[in-house]
């Protein structure tokens, strides 16, 4: 956990108060969860932007500091301005290292250069670029590694093929869902289809019969 943000508590809430905070270079937000009441806060815009640039802000556990007191939180959601793309509001969820949370974790695919199926001209069809898991807030995986180095055309990579760190479990538990498949390229499929057409299945072109114009039975 590398992100620490200083926050101020907002006495006023509502749309007008939030706009006033933004005019003063702050990003309004709220801290909620746990056994405590929700608290309206504000964070300096430049500090939020700096935290976002680290890649460890949204969907990560960070620390908020207020008058010397610190609170671990999970950045649950960030709302952005539709035009400027600047953050407009942040939702922080109170957690401890052991608090179980649901979070999306990116899947990194490795071994593509060694995949027999891809070498034969197949295509890696990615079904899921991320996996939602339940895990402790203090042990959120940076990513999951999906090894496709042994995949042939027609092979499927499922969630059971992904190594999960201790404490992390997929939120989907009723099936062994697909992460990726290796499929034949469209060109290869069309070429195979053409080769499957047997010459005997092509109807012969009947020659025009010769006409007996002399009536002697000979054409």
TrEMBL record:
InterPro entries listed in its UniProt record: Rbsml_bL25/Gln-tRNA_synth_N (IPR020056), Ribosomal_bL25/Gln-tRNA_synth (IPR011035), Ribosomal_bL25_b-dom (IPR020057), Ribosomal_bL25_C (IPR037121), Ribosomal_bL25_long (IPR001021), Ribosomal_L25_dom (IPR029751), Ribosomal_uL5_bac-type (IPR020930)
PANTHER family found in the cross-reference section: RIBOSOMAL PROTEIN L25/GLN-TRNA SYNTHETASE, ANTI-CODON-BINDING DOMAIN-CONTAINING PROTEIN, RIBOSOMAL PROTEIN L25_GLN-TRNA SYNTHETASE, ANTI-CODON-BINDING DOMAIN-CONTAINING PROTEIN
Complex and partners: Part of the 50S ribosomal subunit; part of the 5S rRNA/L5/L18/L25 subcomplex. Contacts the 5S rRNA. Binds to the 5S rRNA independently of L5 and L18.
Disordered, as annotated region: 188-219
Keyword Nucleotide-binding: no
Source organism of the structure: Algimonas porphyrae
Keywords from the UniProt entry: Ribonucleoprotein, Ribosomal protein, RNA-binding, rRNA-binding
Domain Large ribosomal subunit protein bL25 beta stretches: 101-186
Composition-biased stretches (Acidic residues): 190-203
Record's GO cellular component terms: ribosome
Family named by the database record: Belongs to the bacterial ribosomal protein bL25 family. CTC subfamily.
Name of the protein this chain belongs to: Large ribosomal subunit protein bL25
One Pfam family it belongs to: Ribosomal_TL5_C
